[in-house]
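Subject: Manganese transport regulator MntR

B.,
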Amino acid sequence: MHDAESNLPDPSTDPFGALEREVRLLIRRAQSMAAQTAARIHPELNASAYPLLAHIAKHPGTRGSDLAAHFGVGRATVSRQLSRLEDLGLVRRRVDPADTRGQLITLTEDGAARFVRARDARITMLEHALTDWEKSDVSELASLMRRYSTDVVAWLDTHQGRRLSGADAPAAH
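Prediction pasted inline below.
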């Protein structure tokens, strides 16, 4: 029997290997949680829709093109997702009076209520799961995760589509 802990990257000697492992696990767990959250909002809702709903809730009147840019996906992808959300009665689209080619997207009253219940349940779950943590540690984690996301997105925006080479290539281990 091998000891799984001995195979883990050591954060002090392999910080990027350790980070990659934790991000990988976090993504997998987040996907599972996203599916549960989506089902809590609507039984027919796809897990990838929760972030869209969250963004629309925070930015009512956003446009589909803004959503596509924010999430780094194509307009057609967002349009399909919005059509599904509209079919489920969670969002409404109306013509943008400033530019009749665009549409402004908002949550419906039912969509907003369902979103708030699901978001509040996620927050409660985090509060219970991290009950032994100091609030300052939770705050620091949130700040570091925001910084991580900002820096990774900025790097991807600069390097997306380019092959890694030279200074951009990861060091060989």
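The first strand starts at residue 62 and ends at 63.

T.
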